[in-house]
Design goal:
about 240 residues, alpha/beta, TIM Barrel, 8-stranded parallel barrel, 8 strands, about 15% strand, globular
Length: about 240
């Protein structure tokens, strides 16, 4: 199981005061020290946390791969082509949202998305789509030519009743199975924490996890290294 740590909210803390601390590079170095598989960062169009300079500072400062989450924006695509991360993950964005709400609708935007994604062909950058656990979305992702799908686990993470939790787990499990059958690498992320991760870990088709907010929240009390290692221990069970 690949374990990628999202450090966006280290930058959120920094931007709250508009200063230079906490250092995003220092956070990236701790992720690397903990022997995680990749650093995930989301360069949003409104630059509410991660800034352009952060991407290149991280790329130059650590040796582990970067998974760049991004909208299908010509401006962000241009930056991604300069950065050349190991992987890009296409996510939807709305300016007024607090965090990413739902997956990218590849069915609705198939023609536009495939046209814009074509610029990455031949670059060696892995292409991933962050999508809802839906059969049509997975089939369209395969047709779009990406190598990876990341299943949005937000609905599962926000569920409060046993019935809704089990319903969402069933959707995620079926989506992961279909993705695997179609030859896609299957990742999962959004809202996963130290409590709800265990059920996701039982879905054998999921090969990669992207976890951030819960780790950064935990780090306020125990420090970032310990917070990462505690999560990594759960991932490695």
């Amino acid at each position: 199981m690949l374990f990628n740590v999202n450090i966006d909210h280290v930058a959120t803390l920094r931007e709250a005061r508009g200063g230079i601390e906490p250092s995003v590079l220092e956070a990236a170095l701790i992720v690397e020290k903990c022997k995680c598989d990749a650093i995930t960062v989301h360069l949003r169009e409104d630059r509410r946390h991660i800034q352009d300079v952060d991407l290149f500072t991280i790329k130059q400062g650590v040796d582990i791969p970067i998974n760049l989450e991004m909208a299908l924006s010509e401006e962000i695509i241009e930056i991604a082509l300069k950065l050349k991360p190991k992987q890009i993950t296409i996510v939807p964005e709305r300016r007024e949202e607090l965090t990413t709400e739902g997956g990218f609708d590849i069915v609705k935007y198939f023609d536009k998305a495939t046209s814009m994604l074509s610029v990455f062909k031949g670059t060696g950058i892995l292409l991933s789509l962050f999508i809802d656990p839906d059969k049509e979305q997975i089939s369209a992702s395969k047709s779009a030519g990406v190598e990876i799908i990341e299943i949005h686990t937000g609905e599962y993470s926000n569920s409060l009743t046993t019935d809704s939790i089990n319903h969402e787990l069933d959707r995620i499990s079926k989506a992961a199975r279909l993705g695997k059958e179609l030859g896609l690498q299957v990742a999962a992320g959004h809202g996963l924490n130290y409590t709800n991760l265990s059920s996701i870990m039982k879905i054998s088709e999921i090969e990669e996890l992207n976890i951030g907010h819960s780790i950064i929240s935990r780090s306020v009390f125990v420090g970032l290294e310990r917070a990462i290692l505690e999560m990594k221990k759960l991932v490695e069970v």
